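User: I'm designing a mutation panel for Origin recognition complex subunit 2 and want to avoid disrupting the core. Could you give me a predicted structure to guide residue selection? Please restate the sequence first so the numbering is unambiguous.

Assistant: Good idea. Sequence first, for numbering, then the predicted structure tokens:
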Amino acid sequence: MSLLRFISDTKQQQQQQQQQQQQQVSSGKETGTRRKLRTDTSMGLHATTHSMHAERARSCSSSSSSSSSSSSSNDPIEETEADQLHTHVYGDSALHPIQQLQESVLNLPEQNKQTKECLMTEQLQLLGVRWKCLLMSGWNILVAGCGSKGRLLREFASTFLSDGFCCMLNAYQREFKLHQALQAAVQVVRNHLRTHTNYSVATAAAAAAAAAAAAAQPAGGSNASCERLVKELKALLSFSYSPFYIIIIGFDSAALTDSRRHLAALASYEKVRLICSADHLLHAVLLDAAELRDFRFVFETAHTRLDYSRVQDGSGGSNSVNFEVVMRGLTTNHKRLLRCIAEMQLAQIERNESPIVSLSDLGTEASGISLSVSKLKLKELLVEVTSHGAAVQTRKNGQEAVAIRANKAQLKELLQLLEKAGI
């Protein structure tokens, strides 16, 4: 009995152990499946969360892009409204027309050349009246700003400075010499006084005084020559009722550094007015207290946005010749000779020939226009024509010749001026 009971108890224990093992295995599988389910569930949740975030990001980006596009589309309206509000509050619409035109010119791109020229024409009309008033009040003008101002000053001179002598100087030209310009100015003023009978006695006295002063002073360099010419020009202008305008393109040029004191001596004279431009291409303009007192500058601003190529190269070196001023100091015979040279030179240019006119051809052509002169008389007339720098004497094929310092377009303008003068 005891043995049978022992065997049965052992079998029961084995069965119990097997059942426990089976229960443990089943419980382990359940926990594994639960863990797997939990993992899958969490991964699904993460995936759905990620997709939800992606959809939200897409919706936000689309909404932000739509809002940005709508805001960008509304930006011009808002800016316009803001500008209108700013104008209404601060009163920008009440700015001076010159300032409005300057701002308009500055805001224009480079390709709007025609529009820019129209604006510059209006700017010249407004600035011209102001500058003319300043000159009549005894002030001189120094113009600075963005861009070349050579064309602006030339148009100002041709429009507003017809009541007196006008001398145009381009200091950016390589061949520019102040004493040569002063010599030409003295010659023009002397010839102008000589053609007026009211100034005959005064001209003789001034010429004698200038000759005596020139003989008394020893010959020197360009500075001594400038000083002597300044005194002579002042003596001649004292007998004239017309003002003498000097327009200097490039007041800050290196060519005027050593001779600026002679310009200051001229500017201090009551009948001389200066209109200068300073572009600060190489350095700034530095004036001491004495120069500021003598120049009496009013500093003006004019933005043109034009390049400096024509100013620096001088467009062939002929822009400094003002034929209107030259013609005032010439007699009728000198004007006829000048027209004859201009016609012959223009015809040679159109035939693609050299613009230099030989004196032999000039004498033949001059005899056909009721200007029958000998070779000696022709040379005397040429001295008066070439003394102001508008024409130069040279040689052609070994013979004496002459040429006007002008291109084809300027020769046509000169012929138009001579035609208006009845020559």
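For picking mutation sites, this is relevant: The CA atoms of residues 194 and 200 lie 6 Å apart. Strands lie at 140-144, 165-170, 244-249, 272-278, 297-301, 357-358, 391-396, 399-404.
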